[in-house]
Amino acid sequence: MTAPAGKDQHMRFRAGLVIGFGAGYYLGTMAGRERHEQINQMFNKIKRSEAYDIATDKAKEAVDLGVERAKDVVEQRTGNGSTPQSDRPYTDPPIRP
Q1: CA 80/CA 83 separation, integer angstroms
Q2: Which residue has better confidence, 28 or 49?
Q3: How sure is the predictor about 87, in pLDDT bands with cuts at 50, 70 and 90?
Q4: CA 20 vs CA 12, 14, 15, 23: distances in Å
Q5: 84 or 38: which carries more pLDDT confidence?
Q6: Mean pLDDT over residues 10-39, rounded?
C-alpha cells in the first residue's frame, strides 16, 4: 500500500526539516561542551542500535533502486546502443519558453 503523492512530499519535507533542525542544534551546542558531549554519546548509542542499521540499509536500498531505475530510463531513451545513431530519425530538440 502506497501513500498518496502529496503525503509523501509532506513527509519528506518534515523529515528534512527535522534533520536540519537537529543538525543546527547539534552544531549550535558545540559552544556548550558538556551538552555537546551528551549529544555525541546519544548519537553514538543510536548509531550502534539495530534500528539505525535497518534504517541505513533501507536508505541504501532505496538509493540503489533509484540508480537502477535512472539507468533503465537512460538506456530506454538512448536506445542502449542497439540502434546506430544514423538509423534513428532526426527530431528537433524541444523548444523551451
Answers
A1: 8
A2: 49
A3: low
A4: 12, 10, 8, 5
A5: 38
A6: 80
